[in-house]
């Protein structure tokens, strides 16, 4: 209950952001929340289940192009496109998960890089379907309603921010339930010791696949909504560099901890975007920070928090 | 037919003619092992005799080149390890294995997933029915931790416990999964003598109170003598003796396997 109250307070506080922040600040916050959903999702497969993945941006892209292509070809709205983005990204998560079952460690990392590259190249090359390098323009969410009851008009920057905040809040709740369910315990079991997991009756194949699917579904949701926010889906938003940033967010925050990727998303989105003139060097910043974190603080910021707590206790 | 074999009811485990080769080496060569209902069977032999290979064949981590394994009347020869666990085969490991990032209690709970009746969805949604089931399983885990004198450690990280205590967690976890057969791979390894006495008492209780049949791989002959109804001796992958522990340890072939030819002649003299 204490958790729930804190969570509600944090969301309420964040909902007030448009009151104090201007256009740029609000864009940074929207990006922060999008990165949060991506990192929380990645943490499910990489942090809890121990299956490293460099492909989070690919699923992010698959979600975005689902919105873009469905809006263009079928004229469907956000309440169709968002679930569709989740489902289609989840299915592609399964596509990556199956070969990933056969490899571990560095080899798994390479397989996920290959997947990421194939998705990116497909988005660039399949011009008729994806619009190639220019991508696809996406109409705004516009006037919509939830089940015809709560009507609202999503046009302003503020409303896109709120919509992203709502998605982040739902993503956090879903991730919490996943991690604290039987399935979450099985993910951790697979990460800690696969042989032992099998010996106590865990089907490690389906357990790993479920982590890949869940992780991809989170990215799909983020992508489907982000296409509306950006009003476009273009391949360069879904490169391996974006995957690396999401990975850095998770690792700096603390992989395998619940709060880690959430804290990481705020720090690693807001700081580089505040560098102003120097933001062109942000990949350098991420790279150096990632090396330092892995070397000196493998448990990330949450490790510092934990250390401080045990010292106090 | 030995005396004990005729006495037992339908065997829980029946491995027949098991062969397993690694390249040119035959690690297990046509071995039969049966474990009757409520029986404690010792599997002994010198290092490299094929005991651990045999355990891995029985749990499904390795597949036999020849032979069949029947468990509770079913042929399980090609069945995956996790399915064998679900059918009721628990095991402990020679090299201790733990879910190192979990608490003692969570280590226990992973072994209960196989028996949870509530669907995954109700677990995800944290429905009252799923919560009730989880509470019930937690209560059973606490009872078993008490039996193994570990209840005060339930919330501790499992790695904070001593190796001896972790061995006890391993046994408690196995019992919690409600197996018909428990394969114990050198449970006394690394235990201090007073703890070995406790271990012997606990293994007896596992059989007597929980009705678990046991296949015990062990080097400590005191444990074998005090617990086993019957002993199977392997040497270089072959079964060289079988019978009551006292008979088997005096068998010249067994003495020879353990300490070599010269010694066995002198021991007989």
TrEMBL record, chain A:
Give the way it sits in the membrane.
Multi-pass membrane protein
User: Is Transmembrane tagged as a keyword?
Assistant: yes
- UniProt feature coiled coil, ranges: none
Name the chain's protein. Branched-chain amino acid transport system permease protein
Q: Which residues form the signal peptide?
A: none
Q: Is Transmembrane among the key words of this record?
A: yes
A molecular-function term among this protein's GO annotations: branched-chain amino acid transmembrane transporter activity
Cellular compartment(s): Cell membrane
Cellular component per GO, a single term: plasma membrane
Arranged from A to Z, the UniProt key words for this protein are: Cell membrane, Membrane, Transmembrane, Transmembrane helix
The membrane spanning regions, by residue number, are: 38-66, 78-101, 107-124, 160-179, 238-271, 283-305
- In its UniProt entry, the species of origin is given as Salipiger thiooxidans
TrEMBL record, chain B:
Q: Does the keyword Mitochondrion apply?
A: no
One Gene Ontology MF term: L-valine transmembrane transporter activity
Instruction: State any GO BP term from the record.
Output: D-alanine transmembrane transport
Alphabetized UniProt keyword annotations? ATP-binding, Nucleotide-binding, Transport
GO cellular component term of the entry, any: plasma membrane
One Pfam entry name: BCA_ABC_TP_C
InterPro entries linked: AAA+_ATPase, ABC_AA/LPS_Transport, ABC_transporter-like_ATP-bd, BCA_ABC_TP_C, P-loop_NTPase
**Top-rank taxon, per record:** Bacteria
**Domain (ABC transporter): residue spans on this chain:** 13-261
Protein name as annotated: Branched-chain amino acid transport system ATP-binding protein
Organism for this UniProt entry: Salipiger thiooxidans
């Amino acid at each position: 209950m204490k958790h729930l109250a804190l969570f509600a307070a944090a969301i309420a506080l964040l909902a007030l952001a448009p009151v104090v922040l201007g256009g740029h600040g609000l864009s940074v916050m929207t990006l922060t929340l999008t990165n949060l959903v991506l990192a929380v999702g990645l943490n499910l497969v990489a942090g809890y289940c121990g299956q490293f993945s460099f492909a989070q941006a690919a699923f992010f892209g698959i979600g975005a192009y689902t919105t873009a292509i469905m809006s263009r070809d079928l004229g469907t709205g956000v309440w169709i496109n968002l679930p569709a983005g989740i489902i289609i990204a989840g299915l592609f998560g399964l596509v990556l998960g199956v070969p990933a079952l056969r490899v571990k460690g560095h080899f798994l990392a390479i397989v996920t890089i290959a997947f990421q590259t194939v998705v990116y190249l497909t988005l660039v090359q399949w011009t008729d379907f994806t619009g190639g390098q220019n991508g696809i323009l996406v109409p705004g969410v516009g006037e919509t309603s939830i089940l015809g009851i709560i009507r609202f008009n999503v046009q302003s920057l503020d409303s896109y921010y709120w919509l992203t905040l709502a998605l982040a809040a739902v993503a956090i709740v879903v991730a919490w339930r996943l991690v604290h369910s039987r399935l979450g315990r099985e993910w951790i079991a697979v990460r800690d010791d696969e042989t032992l997991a099998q010996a106590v009756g865990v089907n490690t194949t389906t357990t790993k696949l479920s982590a890949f699917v869940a992780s991809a579904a989170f990215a799909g949701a983020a992508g489907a909504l982000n296409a509306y926010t950006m009003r476009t889906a273009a391949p360069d938003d879904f490169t391996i560099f974006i995957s690396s940033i999401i990975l850095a967010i998770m690792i700096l925050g603390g992989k395998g901890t619940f709060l880690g990727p959430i804290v990481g998303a705020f720090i690693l989105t807001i700081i580089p975007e505040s560098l102003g003139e120097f933001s062109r060097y942000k990949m350098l910043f991420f790279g150096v920070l990632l090396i330092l974190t892995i070397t000196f603080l493998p448990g990330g910021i949450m490790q510092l928090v934990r250390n401080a707590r045990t010292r106090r206790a | 037919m030995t005396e004990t074999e005729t006495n037992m009811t339908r065997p829980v485990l029946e491995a027949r003619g098991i062969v397993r080769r690694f390249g040119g080496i035959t690690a297990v060569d046509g071995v039969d092992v049966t474990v009757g209902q409520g029986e404690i069977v010792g599997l002994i032999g010198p290092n490299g005799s094929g005991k651990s290979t045999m355990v891995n064949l029985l749990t499904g981590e390795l597949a036999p080149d020849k032979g069949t394994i029947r468990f509770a009347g079913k042929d399980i020869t090609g069945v995956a390890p996790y399915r064998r666990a679900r059918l009721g085969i628990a095991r402990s490991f020679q090299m201790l294995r733990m879910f190192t990032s979990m608490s003692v209690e969570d280590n226990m709970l992973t072994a209960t997933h196989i028996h949870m009746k509530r669907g995954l969805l109700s677990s995800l949604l944290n429905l009252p029915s799923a919560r009730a089931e989880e509470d019930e399983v937690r209560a059973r885990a606490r009872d078993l931790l008490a039996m193994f004198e570990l209840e005060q450690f339930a919330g501790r990280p499992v790695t904070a416990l001593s190796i001896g205590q972790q061995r006890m967690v391993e046994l408690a976890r196995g019992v919690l999964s409600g197996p018909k057969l428990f394969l114990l791979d050198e449970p006394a390894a690394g235990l201090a003598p007073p703890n070995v006495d406790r271990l012997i008492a606990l293994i007896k209780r596992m059989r007597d109170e929980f009705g678990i049949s046991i296949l015990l791989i062990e080097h400590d002959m005191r444990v074998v003598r005090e617990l086993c109804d019957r002993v199977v001796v392997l040497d270089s992958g072959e079964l060289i003796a079988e019978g009551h522990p006292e008979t088997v340890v005096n068998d010249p072939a067994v003495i020879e396997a353990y300490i070599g030819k010269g010694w066995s002649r002198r021991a007989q003299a």
